[in-house]
Structure prediction request, 460 residues.
Amino acid sequence: MSTSEELAGNLSPSTRKEERKVLAGTLVGTTIEWYDFFIYAQAAGLVLAQLYFAPLGTENAGLAQVASWASLGISFLFRPLGAIVAGHLGDRLGRKMMLVFTLVLMGLATALIGVLPTYAQIGVWAPILLVLLRILQGFSAGGEWGGAALMSVEHAPINKRGFFGAYPQIGVPCGMILATGVMWLLSTLMSDEAFLAWGWRIPFLFSIVLIIVGFIIRRAVDESPVFKEMLERKKESAAPLALLFKHNSKEVILAALTFIANNAAGYLLIAFFASYATKAPDAGGLGMDRSAVLLATTLAAFGWLIFTMYGGIVSDRIGRIRTFQIGYVWVLLWSVPMFLLIDTASIIWFTVAAFVLTIGLGLSYGPQSALFAEMFPANVRYSGVSIGYAIGAILGGAFAPLIAELLLGATGTTISIGIYIAVLCVISLVAVSLIKETKGNNLRVEEAHEEYLRAHPEAR
Prediction:
């Protein structure tokens, strides 16, 4: 696709067909990846504490849950490693190859969790193996997002990058809908005893089917046109990591800080809300019905999907930075009132609290693929967006449920959690405001490389 075609929108039927394949491939692939990732988050809040960390709860009932949240967060520490490996190879070998690799790796790790013996069966090896498989999930997730974001944005017409880039973004709420919906269905159809004994394993094993579907779809997508250009100009894609850290460290840091508040608030919605709402009051929860809470969380995920897509579309009109700013101001203002509604223990107000949060989450997530892709030159783009995303995830969502649990235990009130999210919103709002508007930046290799060399003559 030429730059003139992008600007004019004069696309051939074959080009439009390829665009649809790219959007389907990124959406289905990221949905499956995040389904795998979120199934663990749901299980960490509902069953893993009892099955894999039970001995820690013999003297302190909350300690097993803290350990379960920690196992959720530890995988984020390995996201940068996945981002570095996949980003380096993706900048040299291609976006498509890495997307297929990360999809298969994530699915295999998820399926193996579904057959992993519990602590009662194999003792201390159970939590050790669980954490190792979770690390594999983290490694895979670290390389997944960057490839999916670039496949969509680099195929996009210049005036629709936000819209195209929203497709891998809505894979997150779609994955959450799928994961939470499956958990809700199982919780509704079987007793608590059966769910705890074996029912929780079904969502993990279901990943095998999803891997096959995602593999077939992603294999059918053509390589990114920007990467094809890079293959013709190989000297520009040599040692992408070295170039990234030499010339684009500031962009990596700003990208990471821009993401932290959205990721932290998102993981409270994904994992902490349901755990807090359904735990018994004597264990520090609200004692609400699990099926009702999971259904409400699923409905909120639909809101996240809608507003994420809207965020991508509106960023093509008013810019990436302005859209992010509106989203973060929304989350900032809603952080404390949200928990006041949740604490009523009313399923209606719980649903309202979660759904209203997704408005700000969507506006501060939909434009992210386009923003990050437009921040980096083509030869380091996969590495830059992946590493910035991975670091932001560590600082944001990695231990957000754990921090929320500790804050609740230390203060006895969820208002402290709301303040924690509000502080992160301020940090991310400042970071994104320091980024110069990227909408319309040149992503193509030839022109963008000349701009890059003019800015960094030492790289010639």
Observations:
- The chain is about 80% helix and 0% strand.
- The two ends are 27 Å apart (CA to CA).
- The mean pLDDT is 82.
- Residues 13-46 form the longest helix (34 residues).
